[in-house]
Amino acid sequence: MGTRPILFFDSGIGGLSVVKEARVLLPEHPYVYVADDAAFPYGGWEEDALRERLVGLFGRLIDRFDPAVIVIACNTASTLAIAELRAAYPGQLFVGTVPAIKPAAERTRSGIVSVLATPGTVERQYTRDLISTYGSQCHVRLVGSQNLAALAEQYMREGFVDEKQVREEIAPCFIDMDGRHTDIVVLACTHYPFLVNRMRKVAPWPVDWIDPAEAIARRAMALVTPPAGEVMDHVDYAYFTSGEPPASLRRLMRGFGFVTSTEKLLVAEAVLPNSLRQIARNVPEALTPAAK
Predict the structure, then answer these.
(1) What residues does substrate bind to (predicted)?
(2) Which of 16, 174, 217, 236 has CA 20 to 30 A from 259's CA?
(3) Where do the domains of the chain lie?
(4) 2 — pLDDT class (breaks 50, 70, 90)
(5) Was domain 6-97+216-289 assigned CATH 3.40.50.1860?
(6) Residues forming the active site
(7) Under CATH, to which class is 101-211 assigned?
(8) Quick check: bond before 289 cis, omega within 30?
(9) Between 144 and 250, residue with greater pLDDT
(10) Do strands 286-289 and 180-181 pair parallel, antiparallel, or not at all (unpaired)?
(11) Which range (68-72, 89-93, 265-269) has the least confidence?
(12) Does 43 count as an annotated binding residue?
């Protein structure tokens, strides 16, 4: 029996920022990447509908891949559904991605921190509870960007992004208050680190950009038993729920070490709890990996 893979999940390609760190820590481990691009972006979804979609979809992924750990490399999915996922699949280990408010509050000197996230993460009570618990001694501004995740996807696929748009999206993060300035911006979406150099370029003043990718990867690695001895040859696959990723995206995934397959992942309702079978019917019938 081969080593059980670590499965990374995101609505798009943002989770690759975490995969990159994981490969540094445990390069020989098998990985699977699943992008729910058919539903991207998650910001337009009604919460209950998205939560149900995620619970049904994860049932399929667990049945098919038997992952050692699932890394939900998506702040929106984590803050919305990780409790329900753990309840539905108690035998599965999950690592979530939540805004890094605690380290930001510990590191700020000015006492002014901004959290740059998607609108869904900004609106979630989970995020506000984190601020209440860890950031009560700071002024924390929540900034919900409508377009930055899509801009990051465009940049990763095409190598180009409109810096004016980036500037407009991050502008609300920068506060001048009573002679004090924002000194830390939390990147609370795994897509955003791919644009951080552009953000630095167009920011009105220097700040510390907190990228939680390494911490997430370290948490996942701590839950995994490294393979003993020589690792069996394996192929790391990337799957897309749309089944139709463009050529630019297929090239990008190859650059991150993920290859393709013609396999379709069909639903197996027998492995789902009765209460989740109807939910599963609302998830696309196949998760088709990127075509060669």
Answers:
(1) 10-11, 42-43, 75-76, 190-191
(2) 217
(3) 6-97+216-289, 101-211
(4) low
(5) yes
(6) 74, 189
(7) alpha beta
(8) no
(9) 144
(10) unpaired
(11) 265-269
(12) yes
